[in-house]
């Protein structure tokens, strides 16, 4: 942290004001993502100004948008860091755990909780919002947690680690992500809401798909029954609903919305309604004070997403720059799209453009087109007016989501042929020659949150930004929700670290050992046939002694059956015990044990006739499976494109050979015991 000389920054109540300084001092209150963005923009736009930023939380600036991903263990704690780019600049002073308590508009100063006074030339309020606590009995009891800050998230992580039974109140984006993130194989999670999921924006059929997905993940739904009270009984929290039903849990998580933090604005007499009222340059009723982010109200709207806050920061800082003799670097703020993009466990879900109303219909005269595949859990809906796309919603993966978002924002025209293709195949746009981002035009918008194009990323790479962190710092791409990081990785030919599966080293080692054993089976000479049944050599006893033959044979059979049972985890979604990567590791170890037992059972003799066929099928199936394991485990050394090509080919061969294995194995067992 860089701090200013105290003679220039903070003063006693009788100290000098900002106008006495030879350079402007811009003060920002709030170190959330939008406050940090303002600091970065002012450092970029204003060469002579001094920037001072205050944060009320004890933690250094972090990315609040990724808290749900942190709660679900999809990102590590250090990945939440959101430092100010250029924080080592001598023009920046950053104060953490220094809450601002008052603003003096006449003297143009702010005062912190310790009584320190800071003068300003221009002041930006970026205080964000506070969680809404429902006005019901018991909402303030111990064991009732809000979900808004890093401290809240760490409390919830503790609950999850001890497998506490939890009820999440609220079925907005945050409630959905919290419920699925808190679910473990050993606890129960109930999601309660008095209204529809995501405020009914998915429509009745889309909501049905989402409910099915949540149920499959083990989340219990209690929709349409309002909460009337919370009581504490015998160490448990009991929720009482309007229907008279009750639910006892260990903890309750409130995801019931947010309220703009406007106490500073009210204290100093700025105009407020729901938020701090601002104009198109984010100026408040005091022209020297600006408000951005969730605390600002523009055109009677308070935006509760980070992307509008970033757009507001751009306009605000550009206007401050112009006021001190610079040119206007951005357009006035005119409102933002309020797209919703979230990931519920492994299930992507998105709402973009105009899909609003209780019955799921968009604007008047709009038509909707639907594609659904219940087997894959995919639901996609388009809203079209005339030939233009108004909006879309989807559940399940959709590789066209980025392209579609641009089409919605631009009101792009869509032909009847494309709509027909969408209804039949679920695709709206023509297939591209390749799946690699490198085949897309430079104008393709990679980072939706920060409006960063492929061309901007390529330029940064050519300037020497050779890893994801450097590329993020240079362009801000991937710094918000992180969903574009796999695309950034394609440009770098290096997959995102969190795409590397668990136990990758163990799977790589066991797969490599399996390939070595298979190679030995083909290259080593067969074990000689003993002249006598009286053998003293240990290995020959393994190959000829009836007890050892049966032991190794049944071991191979048990490993084959166990491997078949493991594959059920991938195909039967309700069997969700443990992470799938743990099962992959068990599959890899089982294959290696089976190969060792086979070597002991056969002495590397391939056999003849159907026994030869059995050996060849078993060894080839195991070899292809091991190759798949190698490619999966080493995916951080190859690009995703190469991984997909190799893995798909070897997987198909592996599956095809497995169909013949039960028949040949059954014949072998029958032949041994019958003859």
UniProtKB/TrEMBL annotation:
Look up the record and name the cofactor or cofactors this protein needs: siroheme; FAD; [4Fe-4S] cluster
In terms of superkingdom, the source organism counts as Bacteria
Q: Describe the location of the BFD-like [2Fe-2S]-binding domain by residue ranges.
A: 445-493
Q: Which residues form the NADH-rubredoxin oxidoreductase C-terminal domain?
A: 341-411
Could you tell me the keywords of this UniProt record?
FAD, Flavoprotein, Heme, Iron, Iron-sulfur, Membrane, Metal-binding, Oxidoreductase, Transmembrane, Transmembrane helix
Annotated FAD/NAD(P)-binding domain residues: 26-312
Q: Where are the transmembrane segments?
A: 507-527, 547-568, 589-606, 612-633, 653-674
Question: Which pathway or pathways does this protein act in?
Answer: Nitrogen metabolism; nitrate reduction (assimilation)
What would be an example GO MF term here?
metal ion binding
Q: Which family does this protein fall into? A: Belongs to the nitrite and sulfite reductase 4Fe-4S domain family.
In its UniProt entry, what is this protein called? FAD-dependent oxidoreductase
* Organismal lineage: Bacteria, Pseudomonadati, Pseudomonadota, Gammaproteobacteria, Cellvibrionales
């Amino acid at each position: 942290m860089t701090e200013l000389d105290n003679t220039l920054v903070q003063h006693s109540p009788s100290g000098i004001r900002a106008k006495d300084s030879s350079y402007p001092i811009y003060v920002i209150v709030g170190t959330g993502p939008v406050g940090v963005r303002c600091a970065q923009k002012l450092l970029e736009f204003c060469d002579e100004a001094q920037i001072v930023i205050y944060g009320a939380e004890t933690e250094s600036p972090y990315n609040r948008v990724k808290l749900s991903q942190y709660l679900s263990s999809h990102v590590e704690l250090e990945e939440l860091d959101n430092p100010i780019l250029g924080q080592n600049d001598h023009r920046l002073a950053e104060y953490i755990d220094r809450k601002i308590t008052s603003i003096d508009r006449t003297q143009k100063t702010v005062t912190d909780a310790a009584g320190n006074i800071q003068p300003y030339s221009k002041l930006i309020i970026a205080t964000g919002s506070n969680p809404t606590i429902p006005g019901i009995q018991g909402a303030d009891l111990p064991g009732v947690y809000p979900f808004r800050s890093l401290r809240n998230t760490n409390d919830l992580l503790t609950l999850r680690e001890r497998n506490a039974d939890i009820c999440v109140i609220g079925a907005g984006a945050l409630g959905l992500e919290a419920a699925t993130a808190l679910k473990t194989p050993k606890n129960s999670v109930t999601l309660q809401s008095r209204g529809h999921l995501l405020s009914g924006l998915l429509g009745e059929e889309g909501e049905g798909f989402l409910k099915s997905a949540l149920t499959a993940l083990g989340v219990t739904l209690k929709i349409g029954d309002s909460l009337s009270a919370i009581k504490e009984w015998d160490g448990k929290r009991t929720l009482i609903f309007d229907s008279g039903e009750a639910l006892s849990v260990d903890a309750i998580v409130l995801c019931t919305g947010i309220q703009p933090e406007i106490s500073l604005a009210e204290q100093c007499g700025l105009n407020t309604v729901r938020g701090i009222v601002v104009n198109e340059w984010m100026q408040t009723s005091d022209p020297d004070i600006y408000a951005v982010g969730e605390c600002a109200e523009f055109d009677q709207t308070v935006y509760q997403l980070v992307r509008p806050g970033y757009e507001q920061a751009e306009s605000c800082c550009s206007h401050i720059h112009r006021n001190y003799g610079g040119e206007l670097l951005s357009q006035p703020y005119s409102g933002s799209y309020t797209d919703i993009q979230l990931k519920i466990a492994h299930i992507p879900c998105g709402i973009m453009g105009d899909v609003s109303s209780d019955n799921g219909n968009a604007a008047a005269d709009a038509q909707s087109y639907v594609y659904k595949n219940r087997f894959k859990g995919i639901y996609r809906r388009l809203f079209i007016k005339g030939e233009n796309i108004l909006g879309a919603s989807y559940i399940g993966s959709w590789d066209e989501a980025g392209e579609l978002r641009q089409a919605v924002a631009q009101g792009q025209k869509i032909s009847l042929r494309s709509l027909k293709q969408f209804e039949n195949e679920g695709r709206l746009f023509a297939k591209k020659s390749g799946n690699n981002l490198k085949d897309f035009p430079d104008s393709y918008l990679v980072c939706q949150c920060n409006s960063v194009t492929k061309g901007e990323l390529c330029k940064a790479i050519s300037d020497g930004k050779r890893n994801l962190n450097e590329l993020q710092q240079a362009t801000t791409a991937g710094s918000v929700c992180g969903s574009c990081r796999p695309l950034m990785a394609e440009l770098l030919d290096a997959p995102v670290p969190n795409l590397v599966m668990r136990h990758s080293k163990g799977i790589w080692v066991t797969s490599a050992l399996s390939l070595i054993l298979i190679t030995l089976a083909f290259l080593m000479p067969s074990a000689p046939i003993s002249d006598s049944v009286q053998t003293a050599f240990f290995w020959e006893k393994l190959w000829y002694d009836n007890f050892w033959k049966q032991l190794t044979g049944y071991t191979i059979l048990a490993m084959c059956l166990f491997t078949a049972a493991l594959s059920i985890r991938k195909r039967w979604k309700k069997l969700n015990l443990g992470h799938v990567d743990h099962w992959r590791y068990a599959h890899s170890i089982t294959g290696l044990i089976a190969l060792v037992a086979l070597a002991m059972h056969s002495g590397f003799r391939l056999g003849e006739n159907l026994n030869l066929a059995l050996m060849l099928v078993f060894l080839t199936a195991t070899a292809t499976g091991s190759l798949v394991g190698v490619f999966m485990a080493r995916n951080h050394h190859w690009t995703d494109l190469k991984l997909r090509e190799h893995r798909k080919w070897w997987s198909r061969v592996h599956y095809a050979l497995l169909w013949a294995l039960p028949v040949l194995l059954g014949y072998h067992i029958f032949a041994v015991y019958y003859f």
